[in-house]
Amino acid sequence: MLTSLEEHLVSLPGVTLARVEVRPTGEIVGIHLMVAAGVDTGALISTVDETLRTTFDLKISPEQIFVAHVNARSGSAASRPADAGVSFEQRRTSGGSILMADEGDTPRLARRVYFEDLEVRRSRTSGITCRVSLRKGALVLSGEVTGASSERSRAELASRATLAALGAADVAAQTAAIEHVLLVDSLERRYVVVAVAARRGREIVPLTGVCEVREDVETAAVLATLSATNRWLAQY
């Protein structure tokens, strides 16, 4: 049924990739959708909810449906105005862009990934939306995910948005999934730990990234995700 459900979700308008996350017991804990830029998140979540109930006789909370908007374009990232009734804040990397590729092996410029921008929007109706912009060579990669608002969920949304942005340019990243995002307090400091499950053929490769929270959990989650994936993606 899992394969059939994912195939059905991919057939929905605007959906380019679907992954259903389940526990060993078979319980669905999350549905992750990668969609084209411009797809209405609220309308898509309603469609998915109706599809689950009418076609598959399943019911899950809308908060378990994660929608990632992806976009890849040349040039610099364009800032977007906030929607009416939505609070908006934009965060940039301090001191310029941060190089997140493996410099020790001197990778080609096209393989270097820079964290360029982070936008956070809050809405009373749809929760919180994280939009992450990365730069890879001449491309600006954008990923956007909407979900519930809490400190841990904000870190998870930023992490998923980062992976969605990577998927806009790397096919390998489209097969990866965020497994866990944890906030860890140690020695009077706070860290974000991100676990990613990547695929190499039929093999599942566990990847882990860690970043200290210095500005906010969203920024740390972006950097931890890049830390987990940059060496793996450099192989492709």
Short description:
26% of the residues lie in helices and 42% in strands. It has 236 residues and is α+β, with helices and mostly antiparallel strands.
Walk me through what this model shows.
The longest helix has 17 residues, at 151-167. Strands 1, 2, 3, 4, 5, 6, 7 and 8 form an 8-stranded mixed beta sheet that branches. Strands 9-10-11 form a 3-stranded antiparallel beta sheet. Mean pLDDT is 75; it is low at 73-110. It has 5 helices and 11 strands; from the N terminus they run H-E-E-H-E-E-E-E-E-E-H-H-E-E-E-H. It has helices at residues 2-10, 41-55, 151-167, 171-174, 217-233; strands at residues 15-22, 28-36, 65-74, 86-92, 98-99, 113-123, 127-136, 139-147, 177-186, 189-200, 203-212. A hairpin with a 2-residue loop joins strand 7 (127-136) and strand 8. The protein has one domain (2-233). The chain is globular and about 50 Å long. The chain has 236 residues and is of the alpha+beta class.
Task: Describe the secondary-structure layout.
Elements: H1 2-10, E1 15-22, E2 28-36, H2 41-55, E3 65-74, E4 86-92, E5 98-99, E6 113-123, E7 127-136, E8 139-147, H3 151-167, H4 171-174, E9 177-186, E10 189-200, E11 203-212, H5 217-233
Parallel strand pairs: 2-3
Antiparallel strand pairs: 1-2, 3-8, 4-6, 5-6, 6-7, 7-8, 9-10, 10-11
